[in-house]
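User: Show me a protein chain along with its predicted structure.
Assistant: Here is one chain, sequence first, then structure tokens.
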Amino acid sequence: MGVSTVTMEIANRAAKAGHEVLISHMRNNNIIKDAVSRMGDHVILASKDRVLKTKIIILFAALEDIQNLMSELPDMTGKILIHTNNAILGKEFPGSVSGKSSGEIIASLLPEASIIRMYSIIGPSICMLKNPDQEGNQIFYSGDAISAKRKVKSFFETLGLEAIDIEISDNKTVAFEKQYDSV
């Protein structure tokens, strides 16, 4: 839901990996109709309602739209929402509201959903760093729900991405990869 360079990169990778991808623009699907039509058979321009029925939702929303969008959502219990607006720089970056990152705002508005924050600084070239020791790229994420993080990590790996869990503590970011037991 919502469109940014990062969400479109993930959508392209997911489609190439064989996933069915539903894309919806929060304001008007006509804005992205041409781009979606060029993305292949696995990508479908869908209504917001259809997108919200999926288990994993990747969200990009302008900071000023977050509260309105969240208030319009149905019950999100059991949903995994990957939020792509997060900057790896912390809360002091321009665009944070009331000392809260957009990810923290979304988590407070949707306590019943599992919120996974995907981090970027500028765009996919930073968010998905090339790892010279691996064929794919690295992508950084964090969240509180371990089972949701397992699913997201597995999903990212199907896209050829090395998913690295980021722990944030006292506004200090530490990158590390957790080893999870099998589901």
